[in-house]
From TrEMBL:
The family this protein is said to belong to: Belongs to the TRAFAC class TrmE-Era-EngA-EngB-Septin-like GTPase superfamily. TrmE GTPase family.
Entry keyword annotation includes Transport: no
Classification via Pfam families: MMR_HSR1, MnmE_helical, TrmE_N
Name under which the protein is recorded: tRNA modification GTPase MnmE
CDD domains for the chain: trmE, TrmE_N
TM ranges: none
EC number: 3.6.-.-
Top-level EC class: hydrolase
Residues binding GTP: 235-240, 254-260, 279-282
Binding site for K(+): N235, S254, I256, T259
Record keyword GTP-binding present: yes
InterPro entries: G_TrmE, GTP-bd, GTP-bd_TrmE_N, GTPase_MnmE, MnmE_dom2, MnmE_helical, P-loop_NTPase, Small_GTP-bd
């Protein structure tokens, strides 16, 4: 049986929707054509089949010997007005593993199958309740752990991103229909579609797609955190700065498995974005072999990072020394902020005038006094382009979407090239269809069983 046949067979499925273990309550979800009828067989209370959708009913679940399994609250959703689009029942029971197992057994005996990972959301997609990008956003939403990742997932789930893709598709379809109309009149050599207008439309589309493609750099850091290296000589005040950042933000301090002692990662939430701070040995040159390895690894970490905070002790570092470090930093190519720390110890709390050449990249702080921390945060957010996110632009966070958008971009280039070379309408139409194909992959107008299986297997069971 093909996947869509299985999914549309209406076979009822059940799963625990809440996290397993002891809890105040647990919720089990049953979905399928017969979900309400089957629940009705084991439920004593009202006749569930006679109830309206979106109503909750108190009663008991009983086994075949009429023993009470639990007192429950049952919420009835009638298809298509449910998450999956099918008849659905949510059973809130007491939060015991034992009761949950009993209920699962009860339903299994009535022919209800245990759901696979993501199967409820997959059904929602198959039944047209969500498009693919929205379904993926459901998983992102569950995994989100910062304001920014939550906002991005919520926007995508509510269809913000999908409607942008849909708008692009509609423009392209309009374009294609003009070209194809010409093909119908092939013999007569007519041109319905003004070539300059078509070019203008493609430029327009390219601009929107480029913005989306470019937003992935930010989307990726929103989802996974901004890898930030905090570097500088011993005693520059790196730990003090981390603490200052941590204290203010009640951060989640985590020691990521597999990192060595000198690469401890702290996760810090700045302006709703997670920064993953990686402490390193710094850039100094050394004759010591063991230390040299550490420095080499620091370089590597700095290369891979999205941001470097380079700290120096402003009271004990002269300009030449900093200049040598900045030259090294520039070679690495990662955006950096020069952080002059311990300004409270500098005479007159003013840096040497020579430092003014670095004004653009320099922030003066006293980590110990928590002075200048806000400016540093603002600058960090600015460098990772968080401003774009704050202005409400759509941000691509999903690598699969990025890939499809990138391919759309490539095929748009080909359409434009075709227009410039005056290729015939049938070839143009072909290139446009390729664009439509790639855009369709994002929202799921174009899918394969493998793709769906891959996406939904990453969901938790019960979602
Ligand atoms: P790290 O080796 O780079 O991690 O440096 P630490 O954070 O351990 O700081 C080294 C020393 O400098 C400690 O004694 C801190 O208290 C002190 N320190 C750090 N920041 C400041 C600051 O802004 N002002 C002053 N006066 N002392 C600081």
């Amino acid at each position: 049986m093909r996947l869509d046949e299985v999914l549309n067979s209406g076979e009822s499925i059940i799963a625990l929707a809440t996290a397993p273990g002891k809890a105040a309550i647990h919720v089990l979800r049953v979905s399928g054509t017969d979900a309400i009828a089957i629940t009705n067989q084991v439920f004593k209370g009202k006749d569930l089949e006679k109830q309206k959708g979106h109503t909750a009913h108190f009663g008991t679940l009983r086994d075949d010997d009429n023993n009470i399994v639990d007192e429950v609250l049952v919420t009835v959703f009638k298809g298509p007005h449910s998450y999956t689009g099918e008849n659905t029942v949510e059973i809130s029971c007491h939060g015991s593993e034992y009761i949950v197992q009993k209920i699962l057994k009860l339903f299994s005996e009535k022919g209800v199958r245990y759901a696979k990972a993501g199967e409820f959301t997959k059904r929602a997609f198959m039944n047209g309740k969500l498009d693919l990008a929205q379904a993926e956003a459901v998983a992102d939403l569950i995994a989100s752990d910062s304001d920014a990742s939550h906002d991005a997932a919520m926007n995508q789930m509510r269809g913000g991103f999908s409607s942008e893709i849909k708008m692009l598709r509609e423009k392209l379809i309009h374009f294609a229909s003009l070209i194809e109309l010409e093909l119908d009149f092939g013999e007569e050599d007519v041109e319905f579609a003004d070539r300059d207008d078509l070019k203008a439309l493609i430029y327009d589309l390219q601009k929107v797609i480029k913005a989306l493609v470019d937003s992935f750099a930010l989307g990726n850091v929103i989802k996974n955190g901004v890898p930030t290296v905090i570097a500088g000589k011993p005693n520059a005040g790196k730990s003090t700065l981390l603490n200052a950042l941590l204290n203010e933000e009640k951060a989640i301090v985590s020691e990521i498995a597999g990192t060595t002692r000198d690469f401890i990662e702290d996760e810090i939430n700045i302006g709703g974005i997670t920064f993953r701070f990686i402490d390193t040995a710094g850039l100094r040159h050394t004759e010591d072999k063991v230390e040299a390895i550490g420095v080499e690894r620091s370089y590597q970490k700095m290369k891979e990072a999205s941001l470097i905070l380079y700290l120096f002790d402003a009271a004990n570092t002269d300009f030449e020394e900093v200049r040598a470090e900045v030259d090294e930093l520039r070679k690495i190519g990662t955006p950096y902020i020069l952080v002059a720390n311990k300004l409270d110890l500098v005479e007159g709390q003013k840096l040497d005038a020579a430092f003014s050449v670095y004004q653009k990249d320099l922030i003066e702080i006293s980590a110990g006094q928590k002075d200048g921390i806000e400016e540093l945060k603002e600058k960090a957010l600015h460098l990772v382009k968080a401003d774009e996110f704050r202005t409400g632009n759509t941000v691509v966070t999903n690598a699969r979407h990025y890939q499809s958008l990138y391919e759309t971009q490539q095929s748009l280039d080909e359409v434009l090239q075709g227009l410039n070379n005056n290729i015939t309408g049938d070839f143009l139409a072909l290139d446009i269809r390729t664009c439509l194909h790639h855009l369709g992959e994002i929202t799921g107008e174009v899918t394969t069983d493998d793709l769906l299986a891959n996406i939904f297997s990453k969901f938790c069971i019960g979602k």
